[in-house]
Amino acid sequence: MRALKVWQISAVAVAAALVIAPMGGATFAQTPDPVIGKWNLNVAKSKYSPGPAPKSAMATVSAAGEGVKLVFDGVTGTGEKVHWEYTANYDGKDYPMTGNADGDMISLKRINANSAETTYKKGGKVTLVNTRTVSADGKTLTVTTKGTNAQGQAVDNLLIFEKA
Hints:
- It is a single chain.
- By secondary structure, the chain is mainly beta.
- It folds into two domains: 1-30; 37-163, Beta Barrel (Lipocalin).
- It has one helix and ten strands.
- Strand 6 (105-112) and strand 7 (115-122) form a beta hairpin.
- Residues 4-29 have low confidence and may be disordered.
């Protein structure tokens, strides 16, 4: 075998780095978002102001690009079925939200590995701000909600979800 010259070794090293780096970055650098999964609302542990509390709710969160897709299904305290969803990145930019009476746009910001803030807007005006935190064991999702709902009422809710 003939020896490779220094410039040939450098070219091979650079080519290998270009091929390996994108795979390594996507595979090893990012840790899974702990909010991904199915979450059932524990109505008994949750607090709603104003009420009434919903009869049931389930949030299904899946990975979507640099963010998440959330699908929410539930039954209100008055027995109405609700369904809303969004897909958004953790970049603070506004993304469309469909089916939610309290907002038509949402933005997400990461606070830390287990927490994020979501801001609902309707017609460009902030309506609700949610802070969500997944417990260290990954079994509980706590969401605090503050702001004003579609009926113009002040909202101060504490929602406790359990991993399904």
